[in-house]
Amino acid sequence: xxLPAPRCPYVRTHPGSSEQEIADEPDWGAGHNHRIGYRNxxxxxxxxxHEGDHDPYKDQDDRKFVxxxxxxxxxxxxxxxxxxxxxxxxxxxxxxDFYSHRPDAYPPGWRVGVDAxxxxxxxxxxxxxxxxxxxxxxxxxxxxxxxxKKLGDKCGEEDHNEEHDWRRDNSxxxxxxxxxYSKSGGESAQPQQNGTxxxxxxxxxxxxYQKLRETYSPEEITLLxxxxxxxxxxxxxxxxxxxxxxxxxxxxxxxxxxxxxIDAMTPDNWIPRSSNLVRxxxxxxxxxxxxxxxxxxxxxxxxxxLHYVRNHASVPRLLWDTHTLDVCDGTxxxxxxxxxxxFEAYNIQVALGCDGNRRGELNLIKKSKGFSWGPGAISxxxxxxxxxxxxxxxxxxxxxxWNGDRQWVNFEGADxxxxxxxxxxxxxxxxxxxxxxxMLAYEMNNSPLPPDHGFPVRVLxxxxxxxxxxxxxxxxxxxxxxxxSYYHIxxxxxxxxxxxxxxxxxxxxxxxxxxxxxMEQNLNSVIVRPGxxxxxxxxxxxxxxxxxxxxFAYDGGGHEVQRVELSLDNGATWxxxxxxxxxxxxxxxxxxxTWVHWHVxxxxxxxxxxxxxxxxxxxxxxxxQPQHPVWNLLGMMxxxxxxxxxxxxxxxxxxxxxxxxxxxxxGWMTPSMENQLAAAKQDAGIPDKQFTRQEIESHASxxxxxxxxxxxxxxxxxxxxxxxxGTATILANAGxxxxxxxxxxxxxxxxxxxxxxQECVIGRVSEKAETFMREQAKAEAEKEKVxxxxxxxxxxxxxxxxxxxKLVARKQLSSDTFAxxxxxxxxxxxxxxxxxxxxxxxxxxQHIQMGIHMLDKLLIRSYTPTRPIIGLTSxxxxxxxxxxxxxxxxxxxxxxxxxxxxxxxxxxPLGQTVEANGxxxxxxxxxxxxxxxxxxxxxxHKINLILxxxxxxxxxxxxxxxxxxxxxxxxxxDTQIQVRVLDANKSEQDILLREQLRDxxxxxxxxxxxxxxxxxxxxxxxxxxxxxxxxxINAHMIRDKLFPPALGRQNINTDDTKMSARGKEGESAGVVxxxxxxxxMIQKAALPALRDWGxxxxxxxxxx
Length: 1104
Hints:
By secondary structure, the chain is of the alpha+beta class. Among the domains are: about 315-515, Oxidoreductase, molybdopterin-binding domain (Sulfite Oxidase, Chain A, domain 2); about 525-670, Immunoglobulin-like, CATH 2.60.40.650; about 685-785, Roll (Flavocytochrome B2, Chain A, domain 1); about 790-920, Translation factors (Elongation Factor Tu (Ef-tu), domain 3, Beta Barrel), CATH 2.40.30; about 930-965 and about 975-1045 and about 1065-1104, 3-Layer(aba) Sandwich (Rossmann fold). The chain is about 25% helix and about 25% strand. It has 31 helices and 48 strands. Strands 1, 16, 17, 18, 19, 20, 23, 24, 25 and 26 form a ten-stranded antiparallel β-sheet that branches. Strands 2, 32, 33, 34, 35, 36 and 37 form a seven-stranded antiparallel β-sheet that branches. It has a six-stranded parallel β-sheet with strand order 46-45-44-41-47-48, with helices on both faces. Helix 27 packs parallel to helix 28. The longest helix is centred in the first third of the chain and has 24 residues, at about 130-150. About 45% of the residues are buried. This is Nitrate reductase [NADPH].
């Protein structure tokens, strides 16, 4: 039986930041996104260009298209296997756009990706530069190994004991339940956001309710109404024959096409996802549920973009045209067209739920092995596909051939979680029973399956827990025993509470015990309204007759939820609730695969004095939910009574709190004492070392990865080799100073994982770095509030989303420089709100991030458009809804594969799309000398620009804007705006936009002066006569060609005796320097010279 490999982290010795580095660290607050050389909130290093780019079947036609594409792919793979060095152009030419060939076969928002990783092309092949680097790293590893041997650091010693032994040492062998229903304080929210209050009428005419009230109690009136309605409804039930379309058929095609920025640095960078889903496991993999109110408000049929998502790893990038399904070990091989066209299709509504739903409540009692779900991991959509018994029959397995022996049908997906293929099994006789509707689904709400839900095909087992409905299905086979894969044995099980670890003998026995497997879904019910944090004014409530409480309920096995009840007094008495069923809820005469919604109208006075709101439901066996949650190691199948507690806040309002809330957990359940003690232990034994922001941000690669969690610094480089969640999540968060890293870790790791993490601790962040994290988080939260106002589709660029833009033109400007025009006219399919066109949404000096989908992450580069000129007209953007980028192509040669993004752009066919995001950069030129820098307006009348290579483009945008103004500052019409530029390149041929810059200089009437600096030239005299400089940017060039800092800041202690004539001009304030160029030029030459001269970062010196 598969077991996890030993997990032994080790850390490399690091002395911590020096006392001088800690003392010299700036006093970080919020902002500082343009501190040169530091990572900004978009993950880009301000003022620096990207370092890597500076390194020297419908018919025969369909079948032919696929065959040619696969041959091209095979040829490329053979070259790689043979050892040929493949550059970025080779990889780009080996890709095929299957989506454009058959867009109807793919779900909305499908992205075309590159079947390679940037690191593989650039760093993992045997380029001469890589061979030299590996030799150097191998020598370093040998030295580290020798040091570790001397220190006696080896796996298996006492401090690396396995979980079973560790828990015994810590006396964690008994079941504990603490304070599951304790009451705690809460905060008020906006009143009357959920639920419904019904008002009575004053005057002589009595309402029907008031007449009934003369005879019956409120409970009796409610019961009478509900029983009458429900009697008529259940009599009218009709059967679903599987031929109906989903009522959301048309709506699905209009789902969002944006890609969430949080996915950009993960293998899921190509998948559009809804912002209405709450992520429960941080960045990756995707595990998310809808907000309760959004889920309920969507109705009895759940839209695709609101369906909960459960992924164990990255979503495999499968294609409809090439994916095949192996049935019974090659007896039958089905293409997706074979499956869709060769078998009768059924379309039925099924409630699918995760067996970890409501685990968040269990984790507050005691941390389980699973991450915290709220109550939203349940959805109910239409699923269309072929019945599995028909497919098995075509493979020779049916009721007539089956000999009656106990056998299992096995399913395996194409995804690759950390512990091997995801596979499971169910009894064969269950599948062959036609009433059970086991399906191979290829559509969801009459649209191709979204990638997160199993595109192109998944198993759909109605009435079972979601973990058995394998997604991205690749294999089906029959065995005479249950599946023995890791995920069938070690996941989706409910163990006795005394099992508290996964590696003891008791655990091994019970994980392999057939009785612990979760198969049929269990009975459950949830209150949706009143919502978490909802408040009601007591006086307003008492003016109303009733308040409507609402929610949903479901059961497994095809059993009807026959009764739902609500208690106002902790279960002493119960109110009968009315159920709402979907249309045609019955299948095969007796199966109910769907959920129900329910409501009950409560007398307002009774609600005002209620102790709590508690819901429970009953199934056809008259079984009901247990009163209390039952903790188990995996946190599965929690279906205790769902309790909403009421209290009166300081304003006299009635406050409702759910037990656990997905976002921040402001529910009434609080961590148990056991959890609190475990958390306290986690901070013990931290080494007395501190690390600055700069030091931490430099450890963000697969060879050197640090994480900051709860203010502690961990060297997790060694964990990458065995991390159960894979490497993507760690690398996406390495080197980051953000509270989001902590919340992502805490959401999915138990106390044993914390124990292993402690083996990697090397120190704490410095006080200034901790302040930076705190203040930056506050600033981000404030920006989130502002960005949430208005319709985002008025602007193309969105900070939290990536949107597709189409390459429509390519123009060669020189041997290696091209102008690319991208159109966004069709990005939102013409659905932009009441606008003739969507605005670009970019300020002068700001950047657009462009992305190309690679296997492991989005390949991202920042560019500043050279067209349109932003901010000069009232429209701000060109009417043709396009923008232009000028990009220098770093072509490959025999020593290196070239620049990644520039070569992909060079090979990208016209009509294909790439991703766009932004705007990035907190510097915006507003005109007439005014700059908005991180939200503060500053006026400068003398502007220095130090630019290098492709870093000229943000400066070019500023120069274009300044050249077309009247030349005066906004606050002083007598003060002219003047700009001095140093533009550095390797040679004359490397100068980007040279003619355009020359034109700007001419039009400015002397206000703009541009000096080009090149490393070498064949005719130095002629270059000098043209006003150019030769060499590398240095202090002398800077002082000679640029404006000095304000008079009070100039540092006159210098060895440079030749002072600029402009030195006298520093007597007036309003001088600023902006930089953008290669790291070596900016950090080693320009920035030190500016500091020595008197410029101060974040005050009058910034990086674009």
